[in-house]
Amino acid sequence: MTCVNRKIPRDLTEASLSGAGLSIIAALAMMFLFGMELSNYLAVSTSTAVIVDKSSDGDYLRIDFNISFPALSCEFASVDVSDVLGTNRLNITKTVRKFSIDSNLRPTGAEFHSGTVSNAVKHDDEVDEESVEGSFSLATHNFDKYVHQFPITVVNFYAPWCSWCQRLKPSWEKAAKILKERYDPEIDGRIILAKVDCTQEGDLCRRNHIQGYPSIRIFRKGSDVR
């Protein structure tokens, strides 16, 4: 059995000055690269960027939220904006507009304006307001029609000679006007405010057991008993 090995040329196995120089240069280059990478890894740097919003002041970002409240008004929906850390809260209440809409996205009432009442009227305070007729006047011939037509009908049984009824009238009519604008009876009609003059509709007031003025009754689909 014969074993044949290929012989490596002598010039590849013997040391030379050029080979030693190349080896030293390669080793130094590797050490330099390793040192640079290590230095870059251990270094701590801080960068800051300033971005200027170039959009004009009249440009707005419109965001539509599809929120459904089957039994609540849109006044209970709010939008809060905060940064990624949740520490910087932005007040965008002035740019949020709320409308009641139906299933076809058609507005069913006027725009809702949230806010507190500026002047709270106490029980014994004199009210100086302009009388604005906003409530429905009910009589015997149309009383049952109205209280059955709307989900909630709030009726004020009053007498014109009653001083407490006279004090209540401006606030009652103003509240009725606001509700009529917010929940249009022809479109939405979830609630209306009405009134009955018991000096002219005595039988109607006796039928509803009115014993004092003013008396306010809440009718739900024609019944004031829950």
Automatic annotation (TrEMBL):
Membrane topology: Single-pass membrane protein
Residue stretches making up the Thioredoxin domain: 106-226
Claim: Ligase is one of the keywords in the record: no
Residues passing through the membrane, by range: 12-36
GO molecular function: protein disulfide isomerase activity
Main location per the UniProt record: membrane
Presence of keyword Magnesium: no
Record keywords: Isomerase, Membrane, Signal, Transmembrane, Transmembrane helix
Pfam families according to UniProt: ERGIC_N (PF13850), Thioredoxin (PF00085)
GO cellular component term, pick one: COPII-coated ER to Golgi transport vesicle
InterPro entries: Erv (IPR045888), Erv_N (IPR039542), Thioredoxin-like_sf (IPR036249), Thioredoxin_domain (IPR013766)
Coiled coil segments of this chain: none
Localisation: Membrane
Enzyme Commission number(s) of this protein: 5.3.4.1
Family of this protein: Belongs to the protein disulfide isomerase family.
Name of the protein in question: Protein disulfide-isomerase A4
Organism: Cajanus cajan (Pigeon pea)
